[in-house]
């Protein structure tokens, strides 16, 4: 198994792009319909952090305390209805009554060169093995695609085994070497039979 360490994805509010103030009516045809969290100490940064785990393009705050995520904006924006201060930072705006302030996420998925290669590890199909959280299988597997799949978890590491299987987790053990090229990018290594190349997300 090729194992990498995940990077941190939280950015400050100044690093995200403001999209504007949008109508938010809690129906199926809604902007950013996935409510991810609610907090009485909501800030733009805390909502961005919650949504960054799910790789959505946009995040937004409505009614002071509600954080939403999504990939599309349907309703037109308005200019002056988002006037609620964020309870966790009174210098920020956290939407309005039936209105949401929306931001676009920065590019949070790093290239494989931005993650830390931990090495190649044995990977057995048992509870004591490295990186036990199975995420995906892809005949066009790359390090970037596995990293993206694991970025929705809080796991520190991600890895690829047998060229096509992606795992996430926090535990790695003794290193062994058995290499196989990634089918989606022959310049990368995606583990071998019963072995996983492990990367760590950079902190």
Automatic annotation (TrEMBL):
Q: Give its localization.
A: Membrane
Q: Name one GO cellular component term.
A: plasma membrane
The WSC domain sits at 15-106, 114-202
Q: Name one Pfam family in it.
A: WSC
Q: Which InterPro entries match?
A: Kremen_rcpt, WSC_carb-bd
User: What domain of life is recorded for the organism?
Assistant: Eukaryota
**Where does the UniProt entry say this protein principally localizes?**
membrane
Query: Its topology with respect to the membrane?
Result: Single-pass membrane protein
Q: What is this protein called?
A: WSC domain-containing protein
**Source organism (scientific name):** Macrostomum lignano
